[in-house]
Prior knowledge:
Blueprint: E1 4-5, E2 12-14, H1 16-23, H2 29-40, E3 44-45, H3 48-56, H4 61-73, E4 75-76, H5 81-96, H6 103-115, E5 118-121, H7 125-129, E6 136-139
Parallel strand pairs: 1-4, 2-3, 2-5, 5-6
Helix pairs in contact: 3-4, 5-6
Amino acid sequence: xxxxxxxxxxxxxxxxxxxxxxxxxxxxxxxxxxxxxxxxxxxxxxxxxxxxxxxxxxxxxxxxxxxxxxxxxxxxxxxxxxxxxxxxxxxxxxxxxxxxxxxxxxxxxxxxxxxxxxxxxxxxxxxxxxxxxxxxxxxxxxx
Length: 143
């Protein structure tokens, strides 16, 4: 979906949960302010999982086109076979401890781990994931 390659400057991967809050009217002022600044500084990247989740949830064709244009302007973090395997190992480990995490969250967490990206989110699953792998997150759940 996105066509630019991720660079070291693009150091933040924004989860779908944070994008939804960013685009929603009202609320989440800290997220909206900080994400706006990060976008202007070109520090934000995306991946096919987040892009697909956002596009599937577009409210109409105009919103779909707008979202697609925004996502295509962001650097893309590629998902290769090693990342899928890493997500599988992570999910396996978490499930052994009784935690079932959605595949999309496992893949996103694995991308952040492998590429040393900070993950911005509003999703409690990433707090559980941090118990099994080193990922840097910024949760806006309490903000």
